[in-house]
Design a protein that fits this description.
Layout lengths: L5 H4 L3 E3 L5 E13 L2 E9 L1 H8 L3 H9 L8 E4 L3 E2 L7 E2 L15 E2 L4
Length: 112
Amino acid sequence: MSELFLQDLLGTRVLGPDNEVVGRIEEVVAEAHGDELFIVECHLGTFALLERLASSSFARAVLGAAGLRSGEGLAVPWEQLDLSNAASPKLLCDPLQLKPPRRSSAITEPAP
């Protein structure tokens, strides 16, 4: 695959190795390397969607008051997604190996 539009990927259901739905891609995390951006992970789950829609600190506080925490959901490393069929991405690992998202979605600088 040479080109993929993020807008087409957001909201897409991700399937596990047994073709069960693991969650929807709701957030994408990229890192800046010079003038280029590289996607490092995708966040799945309801909190990732709410976090993407609620950009203000007030909205995040409301989410927290509703009992939703930032650690809920799954972070999928980019290299663990099979996008050969972009309409139906598939995990290349066991969903039990995935961890909750560790940071909010943003373009970040690479770790030193």
